[in-house]
């Protein structure tokens, strides 16, 4: 079985491989950078979900794998509080689409204000932590949960939600 992953992001690839290998030990993986066709910094659940779906659909355009996975990070504002939001999409080789959303926590206002002026969370978090490549590692969610839930762990949960729905759909056939 072959699984396509629509990113070069290390935290995302790690999550897809960790969860998929548990269920499909024989799985082979290939990651490709694909266009999300949404803004570099998605600013709503709707846009973030769309980005994940676009990535997964683009991967499966030529039906070269068992399924393709698109994962997208963004933010979503509720009553003036900006939350991290994350979405995943699985497109199977029979054309079925499964989606799932991940854990969200509020961002500090000093971060939110920069995103509202057009900055991207990745670089803003690098400056905030004085590190580089946070988005490939613990992510903002790791930084603001004292590393209890890292970006990979959060995407692992999304992967469980996606594979769970996909496996159930096969049983119900
Ligand atoms: O290479 P891709 O797959 O695009 O991965 P990415 O991390 O660059 O991009 P996303 O589309 O997932 O996220 C959109 C932006 O939000 C940033 N972002 C999202 N979640 C983050 C997190 O938990 N920590 C740091 N940056 C995050 C990310 O770095 C981008 O600047």
UniProtKB/TrEMBL annotation:
Which EC numbers does the record give?
3.6.1.73
Residue ranges constituting the Non-canonical purine NTP phosphatase/PRRC1 domain according to the UniProt record? 6-161
Concerning Pfam families, the annotation shows: NTPase_I-T
InterPro entries in the record: ITPase-like_fam (IPR029001), NTPase/PRRC1 (IPR026533), YjjX_NTPase (IPR050299)
Q: Which UniProt keywords apply?
A: Hydrolase, Magnesium, Manganese, Metal-binding, Nucleotide metabolism, Nucleotide-binding
Q: Its catalytic activity? A: XTP + H2O = XDP + phosphate + H(+); ITP + H2O = IDP + phosphate + H(+)
Q: Which Gene3D superfamilies match?
A: 3.90.950.10
* Any GO MF annotation of the entry: metal ion binding
What broad class of enzyme is this?
A: hydrolase
Is Magnesium given among the entry's keywords?
yes
Query: Which metal ions or organic cofactors does this protein require, according to UniProt?
Result: Mg(2+); Mn(2+)
Q: What is this protein called?
A: inosine/xanthosine triphosphatase
Species of origin reads Psychrobacillus insolitus
